[in-house]
């Protein structure tokens, strides 16, 4: 087993079937793991129906209640590692991340030597579609701020579209990640960076969701802004054995 795409869901009935079919329609074979947080709109039921069509490629973990993005990914990481996948992806359900970019992230890790491939909105300018200007500025400035505080070179520090080599997740041990909300994405990158893993940005165009309801708000960005100071402080108190060459 080579590659699996983890897609956390909460009330994504408008998008879930289409995103699954889009991933399975790619020439490169990907498996999908849906981690659903008890969506009351019936998202999980749609996935279960599709499992009959894709029994060897589509998997579902159901959790009780909305437990947060970070815990959903940690659940998915642990499941994927136990199943022996070599390349483990994060992707949103709402088409803000284009499934057609998955092979490019895969190639960055499989063929170009990256340990973490980041689908970046900002490495080639600002490539965001249908966001209000205020939100674009908030996101871009947050990434600049994180970069300045942490010393990471990547431009899209808050990105949530990524490919990890399994070794990265095994080394990081996701259960030890502190943040479970939006700052989770920053902490995962920063921890990989501190361990000496190679992070590479792959330019993407991010498109705001057309269907369903966004889970983003200003308080989530606030968590990231204050959380990064904690990350920097913790890093000064912790030793990170560097990745072996």
Provide the fold topology:
Elements: E1 3-9, H1 16-24, E2 31-36, H2 43-51, E3 58-62, H3 69-83, E4 87-90, H4 102-110, E5 116-120, E6 128-129, H5 133-150, E7 162-165, H6 166-172, H7 183-194, E8 199-203, E9 206-207, H8 218-237
Parallel strand pairs: 1-2, 1-4, 2-3, 5-8, 6-9
Antiparallel strand pairs: 4-7, 5-7
Helix pairs in contact: 5-8, 7-8
Q: Provide the β-strand percentage band.
A: 15-25%
Number of strands: 9
Q: What structural class do the secondary elements suggest?
A: alpha/beta
Q: Give the mean pLDDT.
A: 88
- Could you give the order of the helices and strands? EHEHEHEHEEHEHHEEH
Q: How many separate helices? A: 8
Q: Radius of gyration, rounded? A: 17 Å
* Overall spatial form: globular
Unreliable stretches:
none
Helical amount among residues, as a percent range?
A: 40-55%
- Major beta sheet, strand line-up: 3-2-1-4-7-5-8
Q: In this structure, how is the largest beta sheet organized?
A: 7 strands, mixed
- Give the terminus-to-terminus CA distance: 25 Å
